[in-house]
Recover the amino acids of this structure.
C-alpha cells in the first residue's frame, strides 16, 4: 500500500489532491491520501 501524507496549514490543497487522485487511479497500487491540517485559521479550508 502506498500512503501519501500531506501536512497543511492555511493552504487550500484541493487541486493537489485531485491531481494525485487522478494519477493514482492509473496505477494498480492500493493507496491512501491523508491530509493533516495543523489548526489552520482560515475557516474556508
Amino acid at each position: 500500500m502506498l500512503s501519501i501524507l500531506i501536512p497543511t496549514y492555511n493552504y487550500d490543497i484541493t487541486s493537489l489532491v485531485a491531481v494525485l487522485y487522478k494519477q493514482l487511479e492509473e496505477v494498480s497500487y492500493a493507496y491512501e491520501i491523508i491530509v493533516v491540517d495543523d489548526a489552520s485559521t482560515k475557516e474556508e479550508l
Summary: The longest strand covers residues 2-8. Residues 2-37 form one domain.
